[in-house]
Amino acid sequence: MKIIEIEDLSFKYSGSSSYALKNVNLSISEGEFVVLAGRSGCGKTTLLRCLNGLIPHFYEGEFSGSVRVNGMNTSETPPYILAQVVGMVFQNPDNQLFALTVEADIAFPLENLGLPREVIMERVEWALKTLNISDLRDRSPFELSGGQKQKVAIASVIAMKPKILLLDEPTSSLDPLSAKNLIDSILELNRRERLTIMISEHRLELLLPHAHRFIVMDRGEILYDGDPRVILKDDLLIYGIPTPRVSEVARHINASRHSLFTEIPLTVDEFVDELRRCLDDKARGC
Predict the structure, then answer these.
(1) Tell me, what's the pLDDT at 223?
(2) What is the dihedral of CA 43, 45, 51, 54, to 10 degrees?
(3) What does the alpha-carbon distance between residue 257 and residue 60 come to, in Å, rounded to a whole number?
(4) Can you tell me the distance from the alpha carbon of 238 to that of 263, in angstroms, rounded to the nearest whole number?
(5) Which of 28, 131, 271, 278 has the fewest Cβ atoms within 10 Å of its own Cβ atom?
């Protein structure tokens, strides 16, 4: 089932002379994990804003085309309705956290929906356990680490029980270990809850081995969309995308050894397995 359907989407911010998005067509199935990449200003954030209704409801500009999420036209659906289907986590978690305790922050959007108290507490408990942050329940969000803050921000979003989770560079301010812990939590949400996830991120080595789709954008357009192992056969550095080291090594070996690797590996284990297969395959003359 297609949960996101975009047709001929173009958008130009008010006062800008160029389009942030140009003729974007995209469909995503329920439960897919999609990684979005591209240099700064390529249109990634704008695309995410179109999916949760911030565009065209809050950002003015020239909007054309159609965006549908879970069957709803985002141009015609109020943002508070869309927020129950499409949750978004921003780059800076401080923009989403403001209550005195973690528990209160997670409960706040549920209270705005007017849900019964017992339902609110049940969802808060579920979100805390799902992100493994129950021990932070009574802590102030402002005394937490960057990684903890991002987990609280995600918890406050998934407590709404959305079908789609959007994340805009969630690890940009995190150290490598905190980034890995956060991404592991996001991947678990996709596996266990079957959340459809679209994440704009530069730490591709942590994400691509688990991605169903890899989308590369440049100047407001989608240039690549598909299996990351196929896409990484091309040099993406010209689009400002540093690919995983192991994939880059395999690509260079292919260029000099007549396609030694039938598939571009995304992890060290895949690299080693493919190299062993090739060395053992005498018929291929490797």
Answers:
(1) 97
(2) -110
(3) 52
(4) 21
(5) 278
